[in-house]
Design goal:
Number of strands: 0
Distance between the termini: 21 Å
Number of helices: 8
Strand content: under 5%
Radius of gyration: 16 Å
Oligomer: single chain
CATH topology: Aldehyde Ferredoxin Oxidoreductase Protein, subunit A, domain 3
């Protein structure tokens, strides 16, 4: 969640992503169900959790969590986990189509959410707020800082930088 606050183009919003990582130490085998519900393309699963659900790429997961949040927000659906767990990308597409009369698939809706997030990023860049403003607080690191989701070892600045780079790569953005 904290990485999402650093990388959110709207600034440090609370709960701007939403994923199983919000609840510490959820087993990785519950992630595929959540990824499917969010409408994450099957091709991205391996990049996020590995073929055997044996690793977690937080930066790449966050890219889709941010897009999911944009989808929910654009439809007026609360993004809190206790609420959004009752929705899926398919249900959101059906709701959009019902409200607008515009035929819409979950892929169409995902593309619209992607445009929302890219537009927010482009507006920031236009105003001079590039990725150099996305900095990590020193308190995140060291024995009292954040821990790696899988190993439980203290998070390093290099790991956080890689998460940021992976996030940008998954969006197809330059850094």
């Amino acid at each position: 969640m904290e990485l999402g606050q650093v990388l959110d183009p709207r600034g440090p919003h609370v709960g701007s992503g939403g994923s199983p990582t919000y609840f510490a130490l959820r087993p990785l085998n519950v992630f595929p169900k959540h990824l499917k519900r969010m409408g994450v393309p099957d091709a991205a699963f391996d990049r996020i959790i590995g073929k055997k659900c044996d690793r977690l790429n937080v930066g790449r997961l966050l890219r889709y969590s941010h897009a999911w949040f944009a989808t929910l927000g654009s439809l007026g659906i609360c993004a809190r986990g206790q609420v959004n767990r009752f929705y899926s990308a398919d249900i959101c597409a059906e709701a959009y189509e019902s409200a607008t009369g515009i035929p819409t698939t979950k892929q169409d809706l995902a593309e619209r959410a992607n445009r929302i997030w890219k537009e927010l990023r482009d507006l920031n860049i236009r105003e001079g707020l590039d990725d150099s403003y996305e900095t990590f607080p020193e308190e995140w690191f060291g024995e009292k800082g954040f821990k790696d989701y899988i190993t439980g070892k203290p998070l390093t600045i290099d790991q956080a930088k890689k998460m940021k780079l992976d996030y940008y790569k998954e969006w197809g953005w330059e850094t």
